[in-house]
Design a protein that fits this description.
Length: 207
């Protein structure tokens, strides 16, 4: 329904991030832990709260809030459904739904540290009758707002991956110390960390 009645359609990427596929897969599946790291390193103000299986309450700290549900997951692809609002001064609050298709894949390299390639496709359907009626007039503003909101999240995730690759030990210690991590997840993180380090250069750093 959101895709068929979309107000805005946008694509982002692909971007290359120096991180292993398995570690990226874990961080994507634990957005509350990823948001914790992002805030800790002052990359953005994101707050994510798990409210149910595959469901999170999200606040980007810049006026966008909503409920995000992982609708489908298969190898290399996730499809999210979101409902929320975006508030901005001197403009009506935007309410709507979104379908986000995220694709990630490992870049095959004969040698060297791991990398992933990621991209997003976003469909947004507005529910404001007045704004929707005047969509042709406000489309440039809507396009700019949606592109800015989603592209920022995309770039912040890439920055976090780059930080992990450049200096992995402190960030891995922060993940293990994160109060949101369960005991079962701690064991998984240790295995992911060990595998990631084996794939790095002998110096333990991304070149």
């Amino acid at each position: 329904k959101t895709m068929r009645g979309r107000t805005i359609h946008a694509t982002f990427g692909p971007l290359v991030t120096p991180i292993s596929f398995d570690l990226a897969d874990f961080l994507i599946d634990q957005p509350d832990i990823t948001a914790y790291l992002i805030r800790k390193h002052h990359l953005a103000l994101y707050r994510v709260t798990t409210v149910g299986p595959r469901q999170w309450q999200v606040d980007d700290g810049y006026g966008t809030r909503g409920l995000v549900t992982l609708a489908e997951k298969k190898e290399g692809t996730r499809i999210y459904y979101a409902e929320g609002t975006h508030s901005r001064r001197r403009f009506p609050t935007l309410a709507g739904s979104a379908v986000v298709i995220m694709r990630i894949s490992a870049l095959q390299r004969p040698q060297g540290p791991p990398r992933i390639k990621s991209s997003f496709e976003v469909y947004v359907r507005l529910r404001n009758p007045v704004v929707a009626a005047g969509v042709k007039v406000v489309r440039p503003f809507l396009q700019e707002t949606i592109v800015r909101t989603f592209s920022k999240a995309f770039l912040v995730a890439q920055k976090l991956g780059t930080l992990i690759a450049k200096d992995p030990d402190p960030i891995f210690a922060e993940i293990l110390a994160c109060p949101l991590l369960t005991s079962g997840q701690q064991a998984l993180v240790r295995d992911l960390v060990a595998a990631f380090k084996r794939e790095l250069t002998p110096s333990g750093q991304y070149p």
